[in-house]
Design brief:
The complex is a heterodimer of chains A (about 300) and B (about 140). Chain A is mainly alpha-helical. In chain A, about 70% of the residues lie in helices and about 5% in strands. Chain A has 13 helices and three strands; from the N terminus they run βααααααααββααααα. Chain B is elongated, with a radius of gyration of 20 Å. The chains are: A mainly alpha (about 300), B mainly alpha (about 140). β1 of chain A pairs antiparallel with β1 of chain B.
Chain lengths: ~300, ~140
């Protein structure tokens, strides 16, 4: 029997609410929000994971447009760095999307759960801020590698919290390219933006201040997701009536999130995010086990 | 330290010049900003209209590839659009949304070209090349 979705206020309302939440957190943390949207569609709306991944990829573009444009306007984004790393992320997204079309659902659920667990862990351990590095001017004093020098990968932005202009020099471009390729694969495979991987690579391996990493990642995830979305779209997997409430919700959530980012305590946000990731990882593993092995773990909540 | 400047796209807000200070790089920033914002407004408006229509038209969506492909046929899409059908408007919104970052890449190539920044014309063209490769593979390699 072919599953048929009846468009109702209830269906639209649930997806819209989950998407607002995802877009809001996505803007605060520089991620696409797919990491919340996909589990919501699978666990609450009971949609097949491939349809959820396809819809999520399109909504990641929406959140990138909304959040990315604000950070570009403020010149927090480093456009050159973003475009350079997009070479690797688009190639990764192409590989990941092709892989997703051939993978079984239960395996995708397990891979997704592993990514959720990693994101929770990363959010928990990256609670410290860039304040110390800004104070000691260490972002400016780093030595660029050859490629970074050739491509003029350096920059300056105005940090409103510190009330000073922060100069930085980009280093570690080979590591950045490698991690960006992996981020692209996760994006195409799982319908997420891959923002957490990009932000941590830029901030921890490439000497890019956190706010610049968030802004640049926010812009990049749009193009990364577009590559995956094109493949799913032409394969007939993007059910646009499903995408609609998700895209509207993520756009709204990302717009609000971008406006309030500087007013909220980031430590608390990261705690909430880590706990949410742990819960969703457990739920996705439970669904994968039930789907493929017939093993039923107890439901939380 | 580079001086503060007002970007034409910033609606009067005082912002820093881009990392590679100067008018040339500012042109790319303004172009990217306009495309992202324009894509967001157009697609969101179409999605809101389409969603409301779908709710009032009680649209039923079979979760199959065949249904989606049927909606994507040119005559079905055009007929739906001229008769104000929710499916066609939502399809149009999705196409606009997907094309927004692609347009941003194309416009960036042009902006870098105008600014005589050959290195970044090359970098951005590679990104566009991957997008074109994606479309070619999707159309001709039967990835489904």
């Amino acid at each position: 029997m072919i599953p048929v979705l009846t468009y109702s206020w209830h269906f639209v309302g649930i997806l819209f609410a989950a998407a607002c939440f995802a877009g809001f957190f996505g803007a605060l943390l520089g991620v696409g929000g797919g990491i919340i949207i996909v589990p919501a569609m699978v666990l609450i709306s009971h949609l097949p994971i491939k349809i959820a991944v396809a819809a999520s990829l399109v909504s990641v573009i929406a959140t990138s447009n909304a959040g990315g444009s604000a950070y570009v306007e403020q010149h927090i984004t480093n456009l050159r760095l973003g475009m350079f790393l997009e070479i690797a992320t688009t190639l990764g997204a192409l590989s990941g999307s092709i892989l997703a079309l051939f993978l079984q659902d239960w395996l995708m659920l397990f891979i997704f759960a592993a990514l959720l667990a990693y994101m929770g862990y990363a959010s928990f351990v990256t609670r410290r801020t860039d304040t110390e590095r800004i104070t000691t001017d260490s972002f400016r004093l780093a030595k660029p590698d050859r490629l970074a020098r050739y491509l003029s990968l350096r920059g300056v932005y105005h940090d409103e919290h510190e009330n000073k202009n922060v100069e930085y020099v980009v280093t570690g471009t080979p590591v950045g390219l490698g991690v960006s390729y992996l981020a692209g694969i996760t994006s195409g495979l799982l319908g997420v933006g891959g923002g957490v991987l990009k932000v941590s690579a830029m901030n921890q391996s490439m000497n890019v201040p956190m706010k610049v990493a968030v802004g640049t990642s926010k812009m990049m995830i749009g193009v990364t997701a577009a590559v995956g979305a094109i493949i799913f779209f032409l394969a007939g997997l993007v059910h646009f009536p499903v995408v609609a409430p998700v895209a509207i919700g993520t756009t709204l959530g990302a717009t609000v999130g971008t406006m309030v980012m500087n007013k909220l305590p980031s430590t608390l946000l990261k705690w909430i995010f880590a706990a949410l990731m742990a819960y969703l990882a457990y739920s996705m593993v439970a669904k994968g086990l039930a789907l493929h092995f017939g093993v039923h773990w107890p439901q939380l909540g | 330290m580079p001086p503060r400047a007002t970007n034409s796209a910033s609606h009067g807000k005082h912002v820093l010049p881009p990392p590679q200070a100067g008018e040339a790089a500012a042109n790319v920033y303004a172009a990217v900003y306009e495309v992202l914002l324009g894509g967001m407004y157009v697609s969101t408006t179409l999605y809101i209209i389409g969603t409301l229509l779908a709710l009032f038209q009680h649209v039923r969506v079979p979760l199959t590839v065949a249904w989606v492909k049927h909606q994507m046929e040119w005559h079905v899409f055009w007929h739906g659009l001229t008769h104000f059908r929710a499916e066609a408007i939502l399809l149009l919104a999705t196409v606009v949304l997907i094309l927004t970052p692609v347009s941003r890449v194309v416009l960036s190539i042009y902006a870098f070209w105008v600014d005589h920044d050959r290195r970044y014309v090359g970098v951005t063209s590679i990104v566009f090349g991957v997008i074109v490769l994606t479309v070619i593979l999707s159309r001709f390699a039967h990835l489904h």
